[in-house]
Amino acid sequence: MKKISVDDLRIGMFVHEICGSWMDHPFWVSSFVISDRNDLITLQKSSIREVWIDPDKGRDTEPSAPVASPSLVPSLLMETIKEARAIKVATQKTSFEDELVLARGIHARSRGVIHSLLTEARMDIPVNLTTAQHLVEDICNSVLRNSEALISLLHAKTKKTYPYLHAVAVCALMIALGKQMGFDNNLLKRKR
């Protein structure tokens, strides 16, 4: 649950509770999905200033990049990820321990990205494919550098994280399978 300003509300968000008296808003219920622009404008023009949203039942606030806190992902690690993304194709093998550090950053960020994609798709909102593309490139580079690191992190799934980590695991396993079958890295260099 998140408490947000009504100005930050977007179509597709699930309002769990309206902060204020039931007489201060025109809705007959206090929990609902904002499904059209009229409901959004009506709520924003009312005297209500804050609401509680449930990101598990609807759209979340815009994700910040990356999902992991700065203390968990050191700036040197973020620079390494940016460099790997810029290269597009991993050219150098790394040890399991070195790649595990990078894989943890990808693992932490993937849940927010996949959650956002699934929510946008479920709410019939245009999906941000650029974010997904960056995540797939990071997964691909990680698997090509050392396939065991990221894949080993993806085995531990809970009921709540299963849909997100399953999507990432399938992506990583398909890349590893292609690597084992001898597909070359030129497949990853396609022009955009």
Describe the structure.
- With 192 residues, this protein is an alpha+beta fold.
- Helix 3 packs across helix 5, helix 3 (96-122) packs across helix 6 and helix 4 crosses helix 6.
- It has 6 helices and 4 strands; from the N terminus they run βββαβααααα.
- The chain has helices spanning 37-45, 75-87, 96-122, 129-145, 147-153, 162-180; strands spanning 2-5, 14-19, 32-33, 50-53.
- It has a 4-stranded antiparallel β-sheet with strand order 1-4-2-3, with no helix packed on it.
- The two termini are 38 Å apart.
- The chain has 2 domains: 2-53, no CATH class; 75-189, no CATH class.
- The longest helix is centred in the middle third of the chain and has 27 residues, at 96-122.
- Residues 2-130 form the DUF3391 domain.
- This is DUF3391 domain-containing protein.
- Pfam families: DUF3391.
Distance between the termini: 38 Å
- The residue ranges in which pLDDT falls below 50 over 5 or more consecutive positions are 64-73, 184-192
> How many domain units?
2
Number of helices: 6
Please report which band the strand proportion falls in: under 5%, 5-15%, 15-25%, 25-35%, 35-45% or over 45%. 5-15%
Helix content: 40-55%
Q: Provide the spatial order of strands within the biggest beta sheet.
A: 1-4-2-3
Order of helices and strands: EEEHEHHHHH
